[in-house]
Amino acid sequence: MPQIDRHKDRMVKIEFVAVEDFSVLPYPERYTLTYITSGSINGLLNERPISISAPGVLCLAKDDKLQVNEKMNVSAQSFSFHPEFLNTTTLAETKDYFPAAPSIQTGLSLFQRDHLYTGVPRVTEKAYPLLFEWFFILGTEVQAQSDGRWVCRIKKYLIQILGLMEELIQNSEHSPVDTVLDYIHTNYSRKISLNDLTNCAYLNRVTLNKLFQERCGQTAIGYLLTHRLKVASDLLTHTDMSINDIARSTGFEYDTYFIKQFTARKGMSPTTYRITSRKFGTAQ
């Protein structure tokens, strides 16, 4: 059932199921992320065989057809959300200020079906603890509603989860560059040096940067900055987090440095970007 926000007069169309038994998936009119923490399942997704062992994630759109044929000591939890939840704010909050609320685009490919994708993104060893932590926080926030910004925090972690899983799918090969990309996508909120990246890939900095230039069009550290600013842009547009909180959440030790780098890359300050992207839906 949708959540009643006890801090504001509104319904929030999200649900968290702490013990998922797979009996009613997918949930009607929802996107659903099911995180399998132990055991495994076998079955069919849209008439195609799937097999998921922990740690694993199943991404379901409302029109998917899931048939679970076998469950082996499985333990799982689900977070589901109506597409309206991807809007920046509720209609009641935006109608007097903005003509339309831009929608979160990060991670939507997880729910689109084609011949290359089955709805089961790869969960790497490095990604597992982060996904586990973020899913736990989602469940806690849904249940606790600890203050008036609980929905904002859920959007933050949802953006992070969807973004990480999308990156894992896009980089499904496993070259040294993929190893470093995995490291960046799971550790961007922490302090990262070039030495950290070269040690991760077992390459010297010249070779690593050459491979990154060929693959990504920029150096490894340049890619790290680009990814941090991409996540920050989503948080600016779709949450009400402070500039300082966003800076720290995306790996910038000082908000002044974050503002400087953001302004240099985007051509406007974070505050101006937030206002512009919400008003015109032009965030990039």
Secondary-structure blueprint:
Blueprint (H helix, E strand, L loop, with lengths): L2 E3 L4 E3 L1 E4 L13 E15 L2 E6 L2 E5 L5 E16 L9 H4 L32 H18 L5 H21 L5 H12 L6 H8 L3 H12 L3 H19 L4 H7 L5 H12 L3 H11 L4
Antiparallel strand pairs: 1-2, 3-7, 4-5, 4-6, 4-7
Helix pairs in contact: 2-3, 3-7, 4-5, 7-10
Provide a descriptive summary of the structure in words.
The protein is of the alpha+beta class and 284 residues long. The protein folds into two domains: 1-148 and 159-166, Jelly Rolls, CATH 2.60.120; 171-284, Homeodomain-like (Arc Repressor Mutant, subunit A), CATH 1.10.10. Helix content is 44%, strand content 18%. The chain has helices spanning 91-94, 127-144, 150-170, 176-187, 194-201, 205-216, 220-238, 243-249, 255-266, 270-280; strands at 3-5, 10-12, 14-17, 31-45, 48-53, 56-60, 66-81. The strands form two sheets. Strands 3, 4, 5, 6 and 7 form a five-stranded antiparallel β-sheet that branches. Strands 1-2 form a two-stranded antiparallel ribbon. A hairpin with a 4-residue loop joins strand 1 and strand 2. Helix 7 (220-238) crosses helix 10 (270-280). The chain is globular and about 50 Å long. Residues 178-276 form the HTH araC/xylS-type domain. This is AraC family transcriptional regulator. It holds the Pfam family HTH_18. InterPro entries: Homeodomain-like_sf, HTH_AraC, HTH_AraC-typ_CS. One of its GO terms (molecular function) is sequence-specific DNA binding.
